[in-house]
Amino acid sequence: MGLDINSVLIVDGVGANCGEILKSHGIKFVNKAKISKDELLQEIPQYDALVVRSASQVTKEVLKAGKKLKVVGRAGAGVDNIDVTAAGQMGIGVINAPGANAMSACELTCGLTLNLARHVVPAASALRAGRWERAQYTGTEVNGKTLAILGLGRVGREVAIRMHAFGMKIIGFDPFVTSEQCAQFHATKMELDDIWPLADYITLHTPLIDSTRNFINANSLGRCKKGVKIINVGGAALDVFEQEPPTDPLTLEIIEHPAEAQVRVGQEIAEQLVNLVKPGTFNTPLAEVTRVLPNIFSLCIR
Ligand SMILES: O=C(O)[C@H](O)COP(=O)(O)O
Questions:
Q1: In what residue span(s) does the D-isomer specific 2-hydroxyacid dehydrogenase catalytic domain sit (predicted)?
Q2: Could you tell me the distance, in angstroms and rounded to a whole number, from the CA of residue 75 to the centre of ligand 1?
Q3: What is this structure's pTM?
């Protein structure tokens, strides 16, 4: 017998397929693309489960207000907008869809790395504005340059494989990955202190937790090569992008994932929820953050 989940509140513009999958398995849902903090507090007591993206803050207050709440599903990877510790203490499970948008994040990272090398966005903007500034936007090759990947999980290692194929030297940092594992995706494992002065490009693929917040800061930047280029796709820790929603077009481009990935995260979360109610319905494994994250929280990597 599975969990008793009869009603699910879906917010933050999760793909419509999420609700459709739930409905086809007899689970009722209400989809509110945009919801304010007050509305969420008012609505949550009626629901057994909540599905969010990154916009809604699932604080202790929200979790407490969710009198019937059994599960919070994150349609995506990052759970920094959910108080996972409080959820665990209250017996509310937190599940996410960690792999569903990984390839999209990886491809966007690779594309942005090449774009940065060739100044595609500023050059195109100048041209559209009627300015012919060819000399100013002369690019460089990535071949032979060093790419530092901070966080070698699902996204980071795929980036390593692809950018190695472009001739980049890949160095990486991840306390959970061994040197032998790194070698499988052409990366050399290093300590952060050794990474900063070597990197021509730095890309962040860490979860946003206390130890990675403001990972790139005045101190680390001060130790980098002059002109180092930084790529931040998704919910990683870069203090200059902490303002959300961002308004700057480049930042918007950086955080926007293709629709494909949104369909996949919606599906993965819905299938996990259905499995919780009717075990074994889908092959999708349960990605329960409430079980694994406390160990990560205790790790200080700065
Ligand atoms: O954690 C993630 O999966 C990414 O940051 C994307 O999240 P969002 O699309 O919900 O903002």
A1: 8-281
A2: 8
A3: 0.82
